[in-house]
Write a structure and sequence with these properties.
This protein is mainly alpha-helical. The protein has 9 helices and no strands. About 30% of the residues are buried.
Length: about 120
């Protein structure tokens, strides 16, 4: 697959790009195109995670945790005001890591789906 397609994803950084390229290198060209379509729809932009984490300071804590699929932590953050804002502050410092971990899980899931779509 042309790496330029991956480079068009908003906010993609070198670590995510390298992980994704390594994960899909054994897929056929058609499977890689299917992967890109799936992954671009599921992937979370780190800036979106940051903006949603900032909502924790205006009374809506935990939205960013719901976005990355951590429902339990989202509920905990929501009812404890981001665990008294400490958790929100920590997540503001680690928003790229939260997005990267979520996106890496999505790469693996999308690879499995795209790989099963045939050559």
């Amino acid at each position: 697959m042309n790496n330029n397609l991956l480079m068009t994803l908003p906010g993609i950084e070198s670590e995510e790009l390298f992980f994704t390229q390594e994960a899909i290198k054994d897929l056929s060209e058609e499977q890689q195109k299917n992967f890109f379509l799936l992954y671009s729809g599921r992937r979370k932009d780190p800036q979106t995670i940051l903006i949603c984490a900032l909502l924790g300071f205006v009374g809506v804590a935990g939205v960013h945790r719901f976005l990355v699929g951590q429902i339990g932590m989202g509920v905990l953050f929501f009812f404890t005001a981001g665990v008294c804002f400490v958790g929100t502050i920590i997540d503001l410092m680690n928003y790229k890591k939260l997005a990267l971990e979520f996106n890496q899980r999505q790469v693996i899931e999308c690879k499995l789906i795209a790989g099963s779509m045939g050559a």
